[in-house]
Amino acid sequence: MGTTETGILSGRLSPVEYEKNFSDLHPPLDEHEALVASDRCYFCYDAPCMTACPTSIDIPLFIRQISTGNPIGSANTIFDQNILGGMCARVCPTETLCEQACVRNTAEHRPVEIGRLQRYATDIAMRENRQFYERAQPTGKSVAVIGAGPAGLACAHRLAVKGHDVVIYDAREKAGGLNEYGIATYKTVDDFAQAEVDYVLSIGGIDIRNRQMLGRDFSLSDMLAKHDAVFLGLGLAGVNALRAEGETAEGVEDAVDFIAALRQSETKSDIPVGRRVVVLGGGMTAIDAAVQAKLLGAEEVTICYRRGKESMNASEFEQDLAASKGVAIRHWLQPKRIIARDGKVAGIELDYTTIEDGRLTTTGETGAITADHVLKAIGQTFEADGLGIIALQSGRIVIDDEGRTSLDRVWAGGDCVLGGEDLTVSAVAMGRDAAESINRVLAAASQPAVAVA
Amino acid sequence: MADLRNNFVGIKSPNPFWLASAPPTDKAYNVERAFKAGWGGVVWKTLGEEGPPVVNVNGPRYGAIWGADRRLLGLNNIELITDRDLYTNLREMKQVKMNWPDRALIASIMVPCEENAWKSILPLVEETGADGIELNFGCPHGMSERGMGAAVGQVPEYIEMVVRWCKQYTRMPVITKLTPNITDIRKPARAAKSGGTDAVSLINTINSITSVNLDTFSPEPSIDGKGSHGGYCGPAVKPIALNMVAEIARDPETYGLPISGIGGITTWRDAAEFLVLGAGNVQVCTAAMTYGFKIVQEMITGLSSWMDAKGHRTLDDICGRAVPNVSDWQYLNLNYIAKARIDQDACIKCGRCHIACEDTSHQAITQYVDGVRHFEVMEDECVGCNLCVNVCPVQDCITMVGLEPGTLDERTGKTVDPNYANWTTHPNNPMARQAAE
Fold this sequence. Notes:
The complex is a heterodimer.
Chain A: H1 15-21, H2 31-39, H3 48-52, H4 59-67, H5 71-81, H6 85-91, H7 98-101, H8 103-108, H9 114-127, E1 142-146, H10 150-161, E2 165-169, H11 178-181, H12 192-201, E3 206-209, H13 220-226, E4 229-232, E5 238-239, E6 252-254, H14 255-264, E7 276-280, H15 284-295, E8 300-304, H16 316-324, E9 328-330, E10 333-341, E11 344-356, E12 359-370, E13 373-376, E14 380-381, E15 392-393, E16 396-397, E17 410-412, H17 424-445
Parallel strand pairs in A: 1-2, 1-4, 2-3, 4-17, 6-13, 7-8, 7-13, 8-9
Antiparallel strand pairs in A: 5-14, 10-11, 11-12, 15-16
Chain B: E1 6-8, E2 11-13, E3 17-19, H1 28-37, E4 41-47, E5 62-66, E6 72-77, H2 86-99, E7 104-109, H3 115-126, E8 132-136, H4 150-153, H5 156-169, E9 174-177, H6 186-195, E10 199-202, E11 206-208, E12 211-212, E13 219-220, E14 230-233, H7 238-250, E15 259-262, H8 268-276, E16 281-284, H9 286-291, H10 295-310, E17 338-342, H11 352-360, E18 368-369, E19 372-373, H12 387-391, E20 398-402, E21 408-409, E22 414-415, H13 430-436
Parallel strand pairs in B: 3-4, 3-16, 4-7, 7-8, 8-9, 9-10, 10-15, 15-16
Antiparallel strand pairs in B: 1-2, 5-6, 6-14, 11-14, 12-13, 17-20, 18-19, 21-22
Helix pairs in contact in B: 3-5, 5-6, 8-10
């Protein structure tokens, strides 16, 4: 344990401690472990795990391929449905998706390790740079994909497979979206997000333009003028405000920025963290921020969530992970004001909450926690700048079951659409399916007219 | 507490578990360890005639197949008989027998198919104090190319001849070990009996190639890029061995001939199955070579617990008990009707019963009931084949239930006939019709 000095400081730990703390959360399976793990799969018919996967990967098949010594074939099975299968293997909350559905849970309360097996196969294929897809004959059609996150990358790849030219416009320095900026470091070590972007793009026919932001650098009508179709995979660029006194004090930070900075740091020793950190929120972002604050050397980290445990969006596994790292999770606490001293955070005052008549309300009781660093993880918002007349509902883009927006030639998917699930894997599914829809429309348009006698 | 003492053709051992003639019984060191671990007897690794010993390959001798989690299911070998000097073996056998007088020690012998060869080795073996001899007519590789082992075992006349010599030149009980690499196991068994053998032991190993290296295209085990068929053993051969034991046990010509059962015996349960199918004791090799000698403790306690639970006091109470129930197909009761039943509480909903039945059999198991994933046997389609039971990963989740006489078989629309009726009298049997006319 390094310094416990109060204040937001970097370099609290030794280099060795940083390296250890931010290493792979689940080390990859070696060949023997993969064979043992794959032996447990029953090769179910119409497998529940497959139904539970938003991208419908043929899980029994890819696991059987691993068990028969064919990890390359296994990776092919995975990528057929999910070209970002490598990242999904790392970040999917499998405990609430495929692994929750595994029949081994019924049999012996321990599912097949589907996520780790998927990583095993995809890692081998990517390490060997095995490419499974070739571009079809160029169609001469061009599609703009806005946002290089999971939805945009999946969409672009599938469009490239179909022979369309794709230009991806992304607002940030690097492609990858949340995979690059929004996932805890220990879930995706060794710059995996960029390696995956490179792997996806290597099919060719996809041009990426970084630092290009919709509404700032170009408009949707520019895109529609230049391209035959547009896919919006914009993600959620905004964050909710706390709307509490003292929010502007030094030491109050958005958790997404904290996480992004961590991901962009080589050594992590340059990322400052408080001695006593309070994280506000109950989702995956809150957990990722809290755990990493602890790993950076914070002495105390407390997650405060305004509802009960059962309402937390963070999975049970994530909550347990946080607890195992020494993060305290407290429920039924809602921020009332940030206590500042000399313009810096000194603590947080919280209202106790309860549910009354189905509504969240305060009990009148308050409490305070000493803190020098407050991380807000109270939800992200969609910033609809530059979308013009596209129909929104509840602040998100409305799409039909093929991913079409209300505007002709414009599709959307991922977190920015209504019904988005805040999951990488769901974004991939939406991007992929939108590409299929776009392809159908473009193919129909390029059919030569048939003379009718 | 069940009495496991074994008396096999007059050879006494504290339990019916012997180690078969094989690498684990090649020298005193191993056999002493086996006896310490609790084995009832050993058949010493096969002795050859006096002179320069045989040589083995200097590369791999074993090939294998595996099940889940690399559990060894089948092993084959291309090792020959003992490659140690005859007199070294004889000296060690004598010493071991002196050290362990309550254990059975049998000498396995393989010498050329000439009267003098047998006549000269038998007194040397007798002098060790061994309890009996086993004639190795089974070894399927190497030695058979030299006119010994399976080359003898595949010709009933040779078997009879050699057994006769042995009975003539020794007072020791003679156990004739049979090769399974023949069409009808009853023929060599009958020949051995005609020659006067005291018992038969079976099966020896089965001709086999366990696998082929797909990089070098060499069979495994590969010796400098080439492979030879080996002798197959281990759990995978048990069903073949059980059938051959039963065939001899129920053959009128060999009925009552003592049998030492061999072939894939890995647990007490395997051993018990051989005993009830007519074996007087059992011999084990692959299980010991996989797990070490300690497994005999599981076998002893398992057999004992089962006998206690069922009220069987001695081995005589169980030996051969299943033999009367081994029948020819034509005598099976065609009026017995069974249906599969799925225990919904035990079902984990893997769907394997459904897809096995749907794709490959009788379309008799549902996938959905009222839109919910639910696997249920449709009795009007179920022919009672038992495939679903065998593919289900959960033990006892699917069971076969015999329909009571008088109840309706929904598949045929007929009530279950209480009377026994078999193919020999079935109206569809042309032979039966002929008889009726």
